[in-house]
Each structure stands twice: as structure tokens, then as C-alpha cells.
Amino acid sequence: MTPLQILRTTVMDGTTLTLYRRADGYHIELKGMDAAGQTTCCEVVHPRLEQALFAMVERMSVGREMLRAG
Fold first, then answer.
1. Is 65 buried (19+), middle (13-18) or exposed (0-12) by CB count in 10 A?
2. Rounded Cα gap, residues 22 and 67, in angstroms
3. Closest CA relative to residue 44, chosen from 63, 25, 62, 61
4. DSSP string, 23-39
5. Which has the least CB within 10 A, 14, 17, 39, 65?
6. Phi and psi angles of residue 59, each rounded to the nearest 5 degrees, phi first
7. DSSP 3-state of 28
């Protein structure tokens, strides 16, 4: 998958994605609502952008932090 495809599958309607770079690497924060209606936040930090994106997708599927659409 390309980074753009990963972003498309990760970010659903009503979900906020914040991406920024600092000295320690790329930070990706994902905020939204889970199936129970609770606000969830997930953050990944990695020196390489593509790896940060892959880690975010993996964390969401393994950690069952999938955010529901809108």
C-alpha cells in the first residue's frame, strides 16, 4: 500500500488525523469515536513517515482501536 492508501483506510468520516515532525520523528495522532461512543486517541512516533503510517494501521487492528465512521 502507498502512504496515501493507508491514510484513506485509516481516516474515516469524523476522524481527525494530525501529522507533524519533530526531532524524534514523525508523530501521527488519530482521534475519533469508538463503537461505544467514547473518544479515543492513538499516537505513533517513528523516524520514517511510511513506517509511522504502517504502525498506525497495525496498532488500530491489533489493539482493536478501530474508530467508527461519523
1. middle
2. 26
3. 25
4. TTEEEEEEEEE-TTS-E
5. 39
6. -60, -40
7. strand
